[in-house]
Amino acid sequence: MSTAAPLLQVRKLRIALPRSGDRALAVDGLDFELRDNEIVCLVGESGSGKSMTAHAILGLLPPRVSIDPASEIVCDGTNLAHLSEAEMRPFRGSRIGMVFQEPMSALNPLQRVGAQVREALVLHGQAHDEAALRQRVITMLAAVGLPDPGRTYRAYPFELSGGQRQRVMIAMALINEPRVLLADEPTTALDVTTQKQILDLIRQLQAERHMGVLFITHDIGVVADIADRVIVMRHGCAVEAGTRDEVLLRPRHAYTRALIDALPGRRPAARSDAGTRTDTLLRIRQLSKRFASGGGLFAPAREVTAARAIDLDIFAGETVAIVGESGSGKSTLGRMVMRLIEPDSGQIEFEGRDILRLAGRELTSFRRHVQMIFQDPFASLNPRMRAGEAIARGPIRHGEAPAAARARARALLERVGLGASAADRFPHEFSGGQRQRISIARAIALEPRLLIADEAVSALDMSIQSQILQLLAELRREFHLTLLFITHDLRVAGEIADRVVVMRRGEVVEVGTPDEVLGTPRHDYTRQLVAAVAGADFLGTLGDDASPLRARA
Predict the structure, then answer these.
(1) For a designed S-S bond to 301, which of 6, 31, 63, 295 qualifies (C-beta 3.0 to 4.6 A apart)?
(2) pTM, full prediction
(3) What are phi and psi of 485, to 5 degrees?
(4) 458, 317: one domain
(5) Among 120, 36, 34, 14, which Cα is nearest to 74's?
(6) Same structural domain for residues 217 and 364?
(7) Do residues 164 and 214 both lie within one domain?
(8) Nearest to 458 by CA among 312, 301, 323
(9) Both 190 and 228 in a single domain?
(10) Is residue 213 one of the residues assigned to a domain?
């Protein structure tokens, strides 16, 4: 680490929220420094003040949110905390770059990638001739590891994968060669191999460019893989700070220990006692599905194989995790089981009945017995419908008396830990974890036999994730459920699954128990997934009860 002056100094940072909020301060008295050639991780749960800190550094706080007059954010000898919009512009991009969590929201969907990266140069006075600008952008796209940067220059954001879009965001953040990079949850929505590639890229660019990186995350596994120093935040305050090993291996604060204990693979397994059952609930044979991708104005159409001749048996009472990268066909398989997508060929039998032949009332009856929990509960809940209504609606449609259905909804809200009074509140009044509990209550209100959870915990903090997984395990036993759990997180799969199914490009490449698949994988692709898991080496240093990943590490 350099002994030169810090690239960034944050002193006594206090960020005040509007008076109507639950808490007066989003950040309360935060102090830290960022030096060249180091990565400092801000880690904590949602609402801890991590992202608010990054937005304050760049002067991007929401309306009516203010920085205390005594606070200082010093970069190149200038206190940024109280600069006007015009005074902040020279610092954004040229001295401090930022990578946001969701690149599809940050990129203009109607503008080609090259033009957007080029715009970052032009805004900071880099008015070279057009050919020179284009070459500089293409060179930057190549530097962030994008294949065929000339083609990427001409592409639109929707033509790129999630990992490629995040590389574009990194290129845009670094095109003006800032010394400080702020990365706000840049890998949260990515699968394990893409996440590892982005983490490796940030570490590589940080070393090549001698930057300081402020990396914001809720994932202790990511912290273990990338951090030089760690600041743990809770309710706007730094409760612990130190080197990575000091904070993760010798934590002093109870909250830090709780975050580490919430890491998947560290938590107690939430598996069922299904054992070696042979009572098949779901039987899938030679299931195939192809989609047309692209086409239209901007790209030639191509066919993508989402499922290729899949054979799979799922037994009553067990939990089966479907894992794989984005585009592997996991979600397509779940949606075909739900009959939300029709397969091109193959057979799906549920309790001995071919569900692909069902229609009308028979199909409606089948869907009562197979329910789904989606990744984004805010998108899947009607914002104009109270929680109790959302839960009662299904039973009412299936013939239950409205009064009984509403009483059931209140009882289920109690059961999932929200309380009966939550029935009268709207989705926006709940946190992400609470909304997912409502989605779970809505799914089990119909007393299904099979519950499909599609990335149901991927957007949640580790501690909330742990609570939701434990709730699902309890409900599975209580309601005699079978659980099909779709996830890109092998750590979660190892914690909750009785069996793990690995998918790659529409094919099942490996099936077995978590110990078999994650501990001693046979297929090269599975070994690549396991090697990419964030924090696996860290888990290997802890030495308590071995999860499959910890044993392998």
Answers:
(1) 295
(2) 0.84
(3) -110, 110
(4) yes
(5) 34
(6) no
(7) no
(8) 323
(9) yes
(10) yes
